[in-house]
Hints:
Blueprint: E1 2-5, H1 6-12, H2 15-21, E2 26-30, E3 33-38, H3 41-68, H4 76-83
Parallel strand pairs: 1-2
Antiparallel strand pairs: 2-3
Amino acid sequence: MRTIAAKEIKRRGISAVDAMLEEGPVYVIRNDAPAYVVLDPVLYQELQEAAHEGFVAGIQEARRELTAHKPEAVTAEQLIAELGLEA
């Protein structure tokens, strides 16, 4: 990933980032540490969609697991007996 100092953007303007974006995301460095990432809007949208798809897939998997492991109804007495507890 390409990097640029925040001071450089302040000095040259956002056009300093434009050419760099053609090669992918750009880290903006402030106080010797990454502070921001500038992304092409198309890449940002792809990342948003991938995150959403992952979230939906996780929910669907959880539903499948719940359906597959549906517990049977038991009485309190049955549970106490199964666990070896005294009532």
